[in-house]
TrEMBL record, chain A:
Pfam families: RNA_pol_L_2. Residues 39-110 form the DNA-directed RNA polymerase RBP11-like dimerisation domain. The lineage of its organism: Eukaryota, Metamonada, Anaeramoebidae, Anaeramoeba. It is found in: Nucleus. InterPro entries: RBP11, RBP11-like, RBP11-like_dimer, RNA_pol_Rpb11_13-16kDa_CS, Rpo11-like. SUPFAM superfamilies: RBP11-like subunits of RNA polymerase (SSF55257). One of its GO terms (cellular component) is RNA polymerase II, core complex. GO terms for molecular function: DNA binding; DNA-directed RNA polymerase activity; protein dimerization activity. This is DNA-directed RNA polymerase ii subunit rpb11. Belongs to the archaeal Rpo11/eukaryotic RPB11/RPC19 RNA polymerase subunit family. Keywords: DNA-directed RNA polymerase, Nucleus, Transcription.
Automatic annotation (TrEMBL), chain B:
This is DNA-directed RNA polymerase ii subunit rpb3. It holds the Pfam family RNA_pol_A_bac. GO terms for cellular component: RNA polymerase II, core complex. PANTHER family: DNA-DIRECTED RNA POLYMERASE, DNA-DIRECTED RNA POLYMERASE II SUBUNIT RPB3. GO terms for biological process: transcription by RNA polymerase II. GO terms for molecular function: DNA binding; DNA-directed RNA polymerase activity; protein dimerization activity. The keyword Cytoplasm does not apply. Keywords: DNA-directed RNA polymerase, Transcription. It comes from Anaeramoeba ignava. Belongs to the archaeal Rpo3/eukaryotic RPB3 RNA polymerase subunit family. The keyword Transcription applies.
Length: 120, 316
């Protein structure tokens, strides 16, 4: 395999968008000092797929006051999610949302398998 | 926008399954879920595709890189993709990939026809040109073969994928290495040609004034204004014939307002309902793509859940 010397190109490696480098944390949570019950959650190597999904699910939770996300830069492969709740731990709210989404996936998987078992 | 409850139950309904496409209706989920599913089908469902090619002989008119790119885009049967590892996770050497992470496909085609050496162009016929197709790729692993061979019993070259054309005495010989990957790294690993969803139209017609000669002609103008031919005239009323064909262009609404014939047409979409159509490249069955996408989504969410700190760690 021919590879150009590293310094001749600055093209990002294609795997940079999904491969978590060793020693990097998948998730960092930073509590907000100024507002109560709010955190900024940085999820490495995720895209709008997860960012938007999680945000919309959090917004369905009546206990969540604010949920928003951004992908800070197209070459930085991470999602920054900010959550503020009324009176509980925001990470618990995130977990509940994840649980609900996992349940949805499970249910759909079962339904799909059941309904296509003759075609599989 | 419709407010959704936190714990409403999603539903899937199969509309149509073909050999390489599927249509299904996903309801009671948020747009973000439909979008996540679509994005994962395109970019994160793994398949096998040719990734490295070692050329031994290439006297064709196409250069190595060009051919390697073409080879990468040939869909390979990937139903057993779960049995393979990603090369980066495998313990074999990078320049000597093993059978757990890669599949070797060999090709050797030599157009031995000597050709007419005379300078008379008309004497050269097409018969001397040899087609190199995906059928010439000999896979070392029966689980991973070029897609066309799945159901091809008749000798019909049109189903095979053309790689190159060889002139007299030209030869192509190489070893291609197929690896596991997904669309985020390179589009050749994407298992779908098309993965889209659309909303389900709901057309509401309300009549505000009684029928007359004038309204009759207006009605037929409205019926004709629809480019998807959704409506038809039924005596003196407009009937909705093919609601599914509507693509929300609002021509009918505009026409109705413009003609001011005492008729109101409202185009809405069924809330939280999506009709997916997914077309496979042939690498995976359409049902496998959807199932795989659902599983991957679940795995992603689980991975995030597992890495979140324990409750109350943050409350100080
Ligand atoms: S919105 Fe467009 S496609 Fe739909 S019914 Fe009206 S004219 Fe036809
Ligand atoms: Zn290996």
């Amino acid at each position: 395999m021919i590879r150009l010397p590293e310094h001749t190109v600055n093209l990002p490696e294609p795997f940079e968008s999904f491969l978590l480098p060793e020693g990097t944390k998948k998730i960092t949570i930073e509590p907000d000092e100024r507002t109560p019950n709010s955190v900024t959650c940085i999820i490495e190597k995720e895209t709008h797929t997860i960012g938007n999904l999680l945000r919309m699910k959090l917004l369905e939770d009546p206990n969540v006051l604010f949920a928003g996300y951004k992908v800070p830069h197209p070459l930085e492969h991470k999602v920054v999610l900010r959550v503020q709740t009324q009176n509980s731990d925001p990470t618990t709210a995130i977990k509940q949302s994840l649980d609900s989404l996992i349940k949805d996936c499970d249910l759909l998987e079962k339904q799909f398998k059941e309904k296509t078992k003759h075609d599989l | 926008m419709n407010e959704r409850k936190f714990d409403s139950t999603p539903e899937i309904q199969i509309l149509e399954i073909e050999r390489d496409s599927i249509k299904f209706k996903l309801s009671n989920v948020d747009t973000s879920f439909a979008n996540a599913l679509r994005r994962i089908m395109i970019a994160e469902v793994p398949t096998m595709a040719i990734d490295l090619v070692e050329f031994e002989v290439n006297t064709s008119i196409l250069n190595d890189e060009f051919l390697a790119h073409r080879l990468g885009l040939i869909p390979l049967t990937s139903s057993s993709v779960d049995e393979f590892r990603y090369t980066r996770d495998c313990d074999c050497e990078l320049d000597d990939p093993c059978g757990k992470c890669s599949v070797i496909l060999n090709l050797d085609v030599w157009n031995k026809s000597s050709g007419d050496q005379s300078m008379d162009r008309n004497a050269k016929t097409d018969a001397e040109t040899q087609l190199v197709t995906s059928d010439h790729l000999k896979s070392a692993d029966p689980r991973v073969t070029p897609v066309h061979s799945m159901d091809d019993d008749q000798d019909d070259t049109s189903h095979k994928i053309l790689i190159a054309k060889l002139g007299p005495d030209q030869r192509l010989k190489f070893k291609a290495i197929a690896k596991k990957g997904f669309g985020q790294e390179h589009a050749k690993w994407s298992p779908v040609c098309v993965a889209t969803y659309r909303f389900v139209p709901k057309i509401k017609i309300s009549y505000q004034s009684p029928n007359s000669e004038k309204t009759q002609s207006a009605y037929s103008k409205i019926v004709d204004s629809c480019p998807a031919r959704v409506f038809k005239m039924n005596q003196d009323r407009i009937e909705i014939e093919n609601e599914d064909r509507c693509f929300f262009c609002e021509e009918c609404t505009k026409k109705a307002n413009e003609l001011d014939a005492g008729i109101n047409i409202a185009i809405e979409s069924e809330p939280n309902t999506f009709v997916f159509s997914v077309e496979s490249t042939g690498a995976l069955k359409p049902t496998e793509i959807v199932l795989s996408a659902l599983r991957i989504l679940k795995e992603k969410l689980r991975a995030i859940h597992g890495r979140l700190p324990e409750d109350n760690d943050l409350i100080r």
